[in-house]
Amino acid sequence: MKGMIARLGWLGSAILFIVVALAIFYGSGHFRKHALRASILQSDPARLERLGRRLIVGYKDVAKIKALVEKRAIAGIFLTTRNAQDRTADQIRSEIESLQAIRKAQGLPRLIVAADQEGGIVSHLSPPLTAQPSLGATISDLSSDDEREKAVKAYAAPQARELQTLGVNMNFGPVVDLQPSAAPANDSGSRIYSRAISSDPDLVAKVAVWYCETLAEFDVTCTLKHFPGLGRVANDTHVAAGTLATPEPQLEREDWLPFQRLKNDPRFAMMIGHVRVDAIDPTLPASYSSEVINGLLRTRWKVDALLVTDDFGMGAILESKDGIGEAAIKALNAGVDLVLLSNSDKHFDTVMTALVAADSGGLIRKDLESETFRRLVRASKHP
After folding, report:
1. Fewer Cβ close by (within 10 Å): the C or N end of the chain?
2. Domain count along the chain
């Protein structure tokens, strides 16, 4: 090695320095991350459990997620492509059952096991689950409600059966955002035009009811998404926060109609997106706006459904002035039940550290914790 460096002269020395520096940098970073996770899991158990009830997390390493379950540090898990790739349904089911066995031994409500199995371009568990078209494509050529209802129920039943067999008890669907007239030019991630059911709010509401009622028969909770609606939003919230500038009366009549039809059914959940509603709160995304969540949904609409945020690992949150930790604190204090972190390796430690610090300072509303736990217990008893 020395002879090689001598022959290369100063260039060889520089290369060696860079290699060593990178090894130290990345090695120390890994050590710091490992130490932070260990510190979190060794913190006050009661506090960790209370705050953990408010988080659903995605994962890759089952050993890491098992540690979080054992410490009661999460309310649920989120399955996506990384959990399904090159694996059989039996392997996935066995993994979920092992985690649920821990919860059962703890005497806690079952873990929420969530998936993003909309059909069409968002079918993250296919394979091994059967690939299906979107709900919109399923009804697009049908002209009567009788035909549509039969088609939706025939679509939802086998999907729900496969999810139930796998161990999934919450599906992040249906998409009830109204379909825009054309795909926005700068929407590379949300792709609502391709995922939406229809531009007709009444039809969207009907399809959502048929779909959700069918999933409930198989003990799978549907999730209406993405309130306050992405159909009119130009920006992709995977990248940056979007803005909904439509007047509130029009939103009530159109975009919010599907949400309102199902808002009082405790079998269903609602996902809150990272969109600012100018008519209510032009400063914060709906996902952590007290004006939207507490003021509109919980107080005015009397929504008692589980409210879960869209992924807090999106650019709309990560690039916000609040950052992911402060946004999570605000979301819980606004009345959100569950914050979704699709990548726990990247974001769990940051969020939980922020929540623990806020809770230690008396900055987390404890009156809302009991309400969330009540909703989680209720959801675990369905159908």
Report:
1. N
2. 2
